[in-house]
Amino acid sequence: MTDDTDQVAATGGFWDHVEALRGVLLRCAVTVVVMAAVLFAVMPWIFDNIILAPCREDFPLYRWLGALSARWGGDDLDGFKVELINIRLASQFFIHMSTSLWLAVALAFPIVIHQLWGFIAPGLYENEKRGARRAFLAGNAMFYLGVATGYFLVFPLTLRFLAQYKVSEMVPNQISLDSYMDNFLVLILVMGIIFELPLVCWMLGRMGLLTRDFFTTYRRHAIVALMALAAVVTPTGDPFAHGGVSAGLPALGERRHARGSASAVKRQTDRRRAAAELKFAAIVEIVYFCTHRYGRNNHPTRINRADRVGADA
What's the pLDDT at 45? Predict the structure, then answer.
């Protein structure tokens, strides 16, 4: 962000702020468009090696499950393969464009947040900036961790279960490209958003809206709510995918509970320390006042004794 924009954000009027915000949004849009154009050019390679990788038996999760099954004497898990079909004339072109845009938004997310942060930062105090920096780094890390969890764990398990499930042997599975991409994008992006829950709860805890007593009292209600949320965000209706998503949500809930509890304990300790410092300062002020108001030179006993000596003389 330029120095002129920083100065406008700090001291400018309303329309100056609007102009600065317009510049920030324009830079964000240009970043996303440029990144989408680059991804559009290399999208065939991305499809073959990344997006369609869960359709092949050499995917890392499948190999690990096969080795685990062979070690414990289970069934052979090799031979899994999903062949996609296209049933609409323009589907491949529009999927090419939409996937490039969605991936560009996901990859440019830190840059966009940094641009917005540069616009907001001049109006914050130093302690607020320090907290925001930690939240920025943690938010990006948790988002990409959730995306990785969705790609390497949740989506492959969902795909393998649904691709091999048959209500009858007379009904073969023919998965369309549209159906595959809808589930792929929604499930992975939703997992990235879900992994932001600990950060949101940490921020609410810092604001005093979520306390330790709240988490302790409503923990069972929170688990039921998280299970319901997993049922809503899971793109497929099978219990396998729902179990994969809902298994991670209570863990995240416990993690946010621990962070919320630590924040609450820290806030309570800070309050007690501040109260003790105020009491100590009040006692010091009282002692200082009494010492100077009724000092040794002005002590009543000394004054009366001096008066008696003057009268005897």
Answer: 96
